[in-house]
Write a structure and sequence with these properties.
The complex is a heterodimer of chains A (612) and B (482). Chain A is an alpha/beta fold and 612 residues long. Chain A contains 22 helices and 22 strands. Helices cover 34% and strands 25% of the residues of chain A. Chain B is globular, with a radius of gyration of 26 Å. The chains are: A alpha/beta (612), B alpha+beta (482). The complex binds adenosine-5'-diphosphate, iron/sulfur cluster and magnesium ion.
Chain lengths: 612, 482
C-alpha cells in the first residue's frame, strides 16, 4: 500500500546538512499498524513529514521514493499533493492543543475538512461531523460541535483531531506520538479507539512512538530507527520474542520495571550521535558492547533473517558475522541484599493542604481559591524512596513545592510538614535556611532548570555559597570536583555553559547541584520523563547508586509506573489533590485495592520480552 | 566674561587653550567607556561573543555598523571642547574666547568661518537674493558674488562647471586613495593574523571568504571615503550644501547636528534603562503591592501626552537658566544644559514600554525551574535579581536600546519642530527642519536645507534601524531556534 524506497531527507541548518532520514526502505500493508520506534532525534517525525510532504522550508527529500498505490508522492506537484493529503493520507500530531485552531469552533474545522475532501456539503457535512464526534467518543456531540478547543481536555482534543483526520476516510493514518502528551488512562482510551476504528475501516496506521509499551499494545509490525537509519524490521511477535539488534536489546534492557528491581538497569552508554557528520562504520558502534574493528570500518546492510525480520548489524551478516557477546549479566544488585535498614522518620507531611488564590478584576483582588492539594499525609524514612504517583494535575508537584517552602507568598498552605522534627511551615527564615541544607530538588526539564547564563561551576557553587558560606573557595572547588566525579561528568566542564551538554548530562549537573549541600532528602520531580529510555536508565542507575552510597531519601514524583516499580520502597497514589492509596510498593502494585489504582495500573502499557 | 570655574563645567588651562568638558561631554565619555567595558566582557563570554558575531556577520548589519561608526566618530570629534586663548600677556590672567569650540570646529574652521550674508544654493557663486550694489555711482539690483565661495573663478559663469568637476574628481581620487590605504592595512592585518600571504588574505577578503563580512565593510568604507573626498574637496571653495538664512555653511551645520542627534539618542536611552529595568524586574519578581504601584505609575505616565509634559518642563528649565545666568558662563553651556535636560525628560517619559516588556518576561522567568532551584538554596532576593534574572532579560534590554535610539532621534526632530526641543541656537536636525518649513514656501523655494537635513538624518536613522534589526535577529531567542 505505502512503500518507502531508500528515502533520504536532508535538512539544512546553520550547523551543516542534517541527514535526518537515510536510506529508509519499508512497506505498510493495507489494514496493518506499523510502529516506527526510536529515541528523540532518530528521524521518525521527519520520515512522516517526508511522506506527507509537510517538511519545513529548509528540508527536502534528497533521494528515494514514496509510493502510495503506485503514485510516487515525491514527484507530485504541490497542488496534486494537497488532494492526496486528507483524502488518502491523514495525520495526527503529538500536541493536541496546538493542532486545533483556537478561534474556530471544532465543528467549523471538521466540516471544512469534510467539504474539501468529500462530496458532502452544508447540513449533510454537519451531520457527518456530528457522527464522527460520536464515533470518537465525544459526549453530546450535537452540543459540543459548536464549542471551541480550549473548552476541552487534552484527551478530548486528541479525539477531535482523530475525528478530523478520519472524517475524510483516508487509506493511511499517520499518528506522530499521538498519546505522548496524555496521561496513561487517556492514552489507553485513545489507542483503543484508534484500533477499533482501524478494524472497522480497514485503514493502515503508521504509528510513530518512542514507547515500546505502546508498540507491544497495538502494533502489527515494528521498525526501529537509530540515527536516521532503520536498524531492525520485524513483526511484533518476532521483535518481542527475539530482538536482534544490540540497540533494540539495549532499549528493552533499559526499561525499568518490577523484574529489574534490585539490579542496575542495562543503560546504553553515551548518547545518540549528531546527524551532521559523515558516518563510516556502524552508527551504533560507539555505544555497542559488541563492536569490533569491522563495525567501525564498514557500514552494515539490512540483513534479512527469515521472511519478515531484518537487522542492520554485522552480527547477522551472511558471511563471517561478528560475534555478539551476551550483554554483561545484570549485576545482581547490591540494592536487593544490602538495602539499608529503614532509618528514622525524616520527613512527615500531615494534612497538607494547598490553595492557589484566583485573582480577577482591575485591582487583582482575590475572588476565590483553587484547591490543588487536600489533606495529604505521608512519612518518608531516611535512605528510602517514596514515590508520589498520579496523572497530570493531580497535585504532585505542588505537594513537593509546598514542602520545600517554594509556595510561600503565592499560595495558601495549611497543615504541617516536619523535616527531622523541624516544623517547616512555621519555620522562620533562619531555621528555614538551615533546613534547606537538608532538602533539595531536581526538576523535570533539564533544559529549564539550569540558568543558561551561568557556567556549570557557578551553578554548582551557588548552593554552597548560600547555605555554607564558611566553606573556603578552595574547599568549594574541591567539593565541586568530587561532585562531578560522583555524577560521572568530566571535571573540566566547570567552565562550560549548560547548552553545551545533552539532556542526560544536564540532568547529571542538576543532580550534582542538589547534592552540593549534602542533603538528606531530595525531591525528584519527574527527573527522567523528559529523557530518552536509554538515558533515563543511566540517570536512574545514578540516583540509585547515590542512595546506596550516601543514604539520601527520595521523594520521587512521577507518572511512570515502571520507574516506580523499579525504584520505590513506598508508593502514594494521588488523584485530584488527594492520596487515594498508599503502601509498600511491592504490595500496592501487585494487589491494588482502590478502583482508581487498578485502572491506572491496568492502563500502563508493558513491553516485556516474551519467553521463547 | 571668564569667571571662576562654574559648577556645571570643568575646564583646565593648557597654555594656548582651555579644555572644556560640558555635561553631555561627560555622558559621551561615560558611554564610550561603558561600551569598551562591555566589549571586553563580550570577548570573554562565549555566548555573548557568538551572538554579537552573528549580529555583525549579516552583510546589512555590518554595512550599517560601518556607517554608524563614521557618524559616531564625527560626533566624538565634536565632543572634545576647548576655548581659545585670546591674550596671554605676562602678569595678567590669560583671557579665553567666550566661544566654546570643538575639534570638529577646528577641522571645519574654513567652512565655519566662510559665512555669507544670507541664503545661497549648493555650489553657487552668486547669492540667492538680489542686492542693491553701487558701481561707478550707479546703483543696480543684481545677484552679488558670494564672499566665500567661488571667489577664485575669473569667469564663473563659464569656468564653474569645469572647476567643480576637476575638484570633485581630485577629491574622489584622494578618497579612493585613503580607502585603498585602509584596505591595504586590513589585508596586512589579516595576513599577519592568519599567517598567510598578503595576496591570499586579499583574495579571501575579495571573494567574501572571511568569517566577518570584511568585503561589505570595505565596500561601505570605500563609498564613504569617495563621498567625503568629493565633499571635502569641494567644500574648500564652495558651499556644497548651500547656506542658511544667516549665511552658515550647511555642510558645517549638518556635521554639528550629528552630535546632537547622537547625544539625544544615547543619553535618553541611558536615562531610560535603569528606570525601566529596575522597576520592570522588581514588579515582575516581587509582585504584590510593589507590582501594583509600579503598574499604576506607568499607566499614569502613559496617559499624559508626553509633548505636554516635555513642553512644561522645558519652559520651567528655560526660566531656570535665564535666572541663573552665572551658572552657565558661555552660550555653549546654556544650550548644552538644555540638551542635557531634554534628554533626561525624554528618558523619563519613555521607559514605560520597556518596563512593561521586562515585567512580563520576568513574570515568566520567575516560574523557571532554575529560579526555583535557587530559591530552594535560600539564595537571597538581590542575588536572584542580579545573577539569575538580569542576565536573562539582557537581550531584551539590548534590543530595545538599539531600537529606541532611532525613535529618540526622530522625537528630537519633532520636538524641535514644535519649538520645545533643543535650544534654537543649537545645530540639530530638528531646528534645521523647523527653519525649512518657512523656506519651502518662498518662491523660488529654498529646498536645500530640508534636503540636506533629511538625507543625513535619513541615513543615520536608517543605519540605526538596520543595525537594530541585525541585533534583534542575533539576540532574539526565537530566531535562534530556527
Ligand atoms: N500557580 C498556580 N496557579 C493556579 N493553579 C495552579 C498553579 N500551579 C498548579 N496549579 C493547579 O494545581 C493542580 C495540581 O498541579 P500540579 O501540582 O502541577 O500537578 P502535577 O504535578 O501532578 O502535574 C492543577 O489543577 C493545577 O491547575
Ligand atoms: S554492527 Fe557491530 S557495532 Fe553495529 S550494532 Fe552490530 S555489533 Fe554493534
Ligand atoms: Mg508536574
Amino acid at each position: 500500500m505505502l512503500k518507502l524506497d531508500q528515502l533520504r531527507t536532508e535538512i539544512y541548518s546553520s550547523q551543516g546538512t542534517v541527514v535526518a532520514v537515510d536510506g529508509v526502505t519499508l512497506d505498510i500493508q493495507p489494514g496493518e499498524t506499523f510502529a516506527l520506534v526510536g529515541e528523540s532525534g532518530s528521524g521518525k517525525s521527519v520520515t512522516a513529514l517526508s511522506i506527507t510532504r509537510l517538511l519545513p522550508d529548509n528540508a527536502c527529500v534528497a533521494a528515494g521514493s514514496v509510493l502510495l498505490g503506485g503514485t510516487n508522492l515525491v514527484d507530485l506537484a504541490e497542488r496534486d499533493m494537497r488532494r492526496y493529503r486528507g483524502r488518502h493520507i491523514s495525520m495526527i500530531f503529538q500536541e493536541p492543543a496546538t493542532s486545533l485552531n483556537p478561534v474556530l469552533t471544532i465543528g467549523r474545522q471538521i466540516i471544512e475538512v469534510i467539504e474539501t475532501h468529500t462530496e458532502l456539503h452544508g447540513a449533510a457535512a454537519r451531520s457527518k461531523a456530528i457522527d464522527w464526534l460520536r464515533r470518537v467518543g465525544i459526549p453530546e456531540p450535537e452540543r459540543r460541535i459548536d464549542t471551541y478547543s480550549f473548552q476541552m481536555s487534552g484527551g478530548q482534543k486528541q479525539r477531535v483531531m482523530i475525528a478530523m483526520a478520519l472524517a475524510t476516510e483516508p487509506e493511511l493514518l499517520i499518528a506522530d506520538e499521538p498519546t505522548t502528551a496524555l496521561d496513561v488512562t487517556v492514552q489507553k482510551q485513545i489507542l483503543d479507539l484508534l484500533l477499533s476504528l482501524q478494524r472497522e475501516r480497514g485503514m493502515s496506521i503508521l504509528l510513530i512512538t518512542h514507547d515500546l509499551g505502546v508498540v507491544a499494545q497495538v502494533a502489527d509490525r515494528v521498525g526501529i530507527m537509530y540515527a536516521g537509519e532503520l536498524v531492525e524490521l520485524a513483526t511484533k511477535d518476532e521483535f518481542f520474542s527475539r530482538p536482534m539488534h544490540p540497540y533494540a536489546n539495549g532499549l528493552l534492557g533499559a526499561l525499568p520495571d518490577v523484574d529489574k528491581r534490585g539490579h542496575t538497569l542495562e543503560a546504553i552508554p553515551g548518547s545518540a550521535p549528531t546527524l551532521t557528520q559523515a558516518f563510516h562504520g556502524c552508527r551504533f558502534a560507539p555505544r555497542c558492547h559488541a563492536a569490533t574493528e569491522r563495525c567501525r570500518q564498514e557500514a552494515p546492510a539490512l540483513y534479512a533473517q527469515g521472511a519478515t525480520h531484518a537487522v542492520r548489524c554485522f552480527g547477522f551478516a551472511p558471511t563471517n558475522p561478528v560475534v555478539i557477546s551476551a550483554l554483561p549479566e545484570r549485576i545482581a544488585g547490591a540494592g536487593a541484599h544490602n538495602r539499608r535498614e529503614a532509618g528514622d522518620v525524616l520527613l512527615r507531611a500531615d494534612k497538607l493542604r494547598v490553595r492557589f488564590p484566583i485573582r480577577s478584576g482591575l485591582m487583582q483582588r482575590i475572588t476565590g481559591y483553587v484547591d490543588a492539594v487536600h489533606d495529604v499525609s505521608f512519612e518518608l524514612r531516611q535512605g528510602q524512596t517514596l514515590a508520589l504517583v498520579g496523572e497530570s494535575g493531580s497535585g504532585k508537584t505542588t505537594t513537593g513545592k509546598a514542602i520545600l517552602q517554594l509556595l510561600r507568598g503565592s499560595a495558601v498552605v495549611d497543615g504541617s510538614a516536619t523535616l527531622n522534627g523541624l516544623e517547616l511551615m512555621t519555620a522562620n527564615d533562619r531555621q528555614l535556611h538551615g533546613a534547606r541544607r537538608q532538602m533539595q530538588i531536581i526538576f523535570q526539564d533539564p533544559f529549564g532548570s539550569l540558568n543558561p547564563r551561568m557556567r556549570v561551576g557557578e551553578i554548582l557553587e551557588e548552593g554552597i555559597l548560600s547555605l555554607q558560606p564558611d566553606v573556603s573557595a578552595v574547599g568549594r572547588t574541591e567539593r565541586i570536583a568530587v561532585l562531578l566525579d560522583k555524577v560521572g561528568l568530566p571535571r573540566n566542564c566547570v567552565t562550560r555553559y549548560p547548552h553545551e551538554f545533552s539532556g542526560g548530562q544536564r540532568q547529571r549537573i542538576a543532580i550534582a547541584r542538589a547534592l552540593a549541600v549534602d542533603p538528606q532528602l531530595i525531591i525528584c520531580d519527574e527527573p527522567t520523563s523528559a529523557l530518552d529510555v536509554s538515558v533515563q536508565a543511566q540517570i536512574l542507575n545514578l540516583l540509585k547508586g547515590l542512595q546506596q552510597e550516601l543514604g539520601v531519601a527520595y521523594l520521587f514524583i512521577t507518572h511512570n509506573i515502571g520507574v516506580v516499580e523499579y525504584l520505590a520502597d513506598h508508593v502514594a497514589v494521588m488523584q485530584d489533590g488527594r492520596i487515594v492509596e498508599a503502601g509498600r510498593s511491592a504490595e500496592l502494585l501487585s494487589s491494588p485495592r482502590e478502583a482508581y489504582t487498578q485502572t491506572l495500573l491496568a492502563a500502563v502499557p508493558r513491553a516485556r520480552l516474551k519467553a521463547v | 566674561m571668564p569667571g571662576p570655574i562654574r559648577a556645571c563645567v570643568c575646564s583646565k588651562d593648557y597654555g594656548a587653550m582651555k579644555i572644556v568638558v560640558l555635561w553631555t561631554d561627560w555622558v559621551v565619555f561615560f558611554v564610550m567607556a561603558a561600551t569598551l567595558l562591555y566589549a571586553w566582557k563580550v570577548r570573554h563570554t562565549p555566548h555573548l561573543a557568538s551572538t554579537w558575531r552573528k549580529a555583525f556577520a549579516s552583510p546589512t548589519g555590518s554595512a550599517a555598523t560601518t556607517v554608524l561608526a563614521a557618524f559616531v566618530s564625527i560626533g566624538v570629534l565634536d565632543t572634545l571642547h576647548y576655548r581659545r586663548l585670546l591674550s596671554n600677556s605676562t602678569g595678567t590672567a590669560p583671557t579665553y574666547g567666550t566661544e566654546t569650540l570643538s575639534l570638529l570646529d577646528h577641522l571645519l574652521r574654513r567652512q565655519q568661518a566662510g559665512k555669507e550674508r544670507s541664503y545661497s544654493a549648493p555650489l553657487a557663486y552668486l547669492a540667492y537674493e538680489k542686492e542693491a550694489v553701487t558701481t561707478n555711482g550707479e546703483t543696480r539690483r543684481i545677484y552679488p558674488r558670494l564672499i566665500n565661495a567661488g571667489t577664485h573663478l575669473q569667469d564663473p559663469a563659464h569656468d564653474r562647471a569645469a572647476d567643480v568637476l576637476t575638484r570633485g574628481f581630485v577629491g574622489a581620487i584622494k578618497g579612493m586613495f585613503v580607502a585603498g590605504l585602509l584596505a591595504g592595512l586590513l589585508t596586512w592585518f589579516k595576513s599577519r593574523r592568519n599567517g598567510r600571504g598578503l595576496a591570499a588574505a586579499w583574495f579571501d577578503i575579495r571573494s567574501g571568504r572571511t568569517r566577518m563580512p570584511l568585503r561589505v565593510v570595505l565596500t561601505t568604507v570605500s563609498v564613504l571615503c569617495l563621498l567625503s573626498g568629493i565633499v571635502l574637496a569641494l567644500s574648500v571653495e564652495y558651499h556644497v550644501f548651500g547656506t542658511d538664512r544667516v549665511g552658515n555653511d550647511l555642510f558645517y551645520v549638518v556635521m554639528k547636528s550629528l552630535r546632537t542627534a547622537l547625544v539625544i539618542g544615547t543619553l535618553s536611552t541611558l536615562v531610560t534603562m535603569p528606570i525601566a529595568v529596575g522597576l520592570g524586574i522588581l514588579a515582575g519578581y516581587l509582585g504584590g503591592w510593589i507590582d501594583e504601584v509600579i503598574q499604576y505609575i506607568y499607566t499614569v505616565i502613559n496617559s499624559i501626552p508626553y509633548v505636554l509634559l516635555i513642553a512644561a518642563t522645558v519652559l520651567i528649565l528655560m526660566t531656570f537658566i535665564d535666572n541663573h545666568a552665572d551658572l552657565f558662563p558661555t552660550a555653549a553651556n546654556r544650550t548644552d544644559a538644555r540638551l542635557f535636560f531634554l534628554c533626561v525628560i525624554l528618558g523619563m517619559t519613555s521607559w514605560t514600554d520597556l518596563c512593561r516588556l521586562i515585567r512580563g518576561e520576568v513574570i515568566k522567568l520567575r516560574e523557571a525551574e532554575y529560579i526555583q532551584a535557587a530559591q530552594a538554596f535560600g539564595v537571597g532576593t538581590w542575588r536572584i535579581l542580579s545573577v539569575h534574572l538580569l542576565p536573562n532579560v539582557m537581550h531584551l534590554i539590548l534590543i530595545s536600546m538599539v531600537i529606541s535610539f532611532s525613535g529618540l532621534v526622530l522625537a528630537e526632530a519633532v520636538l524641535s519642530y514644535v519649538g520645545i526641543g533643543v535650544d534654537p541656537a543649537m545645530q540639530s536636525f530638528g531646528t534645521l527642519i523647523n527653519t525649512a518649513r518657512l523656506e519651502l514656501s518662498r518662491k523660488p523655494a529654498i529646498w536645500w536645507t530640508l534636503a540636506t537635513a533629511f538625507s543625513f538624518m535619513f541615513t543615520l536613522v536608517l543605519s540605526a534601524n538596520i543595525f537594530s534589526d541585525a541585533v534583534r535577529d542575533a539576540f532574539d531567542p526565537r530566531a535562534i531556534h530556527n
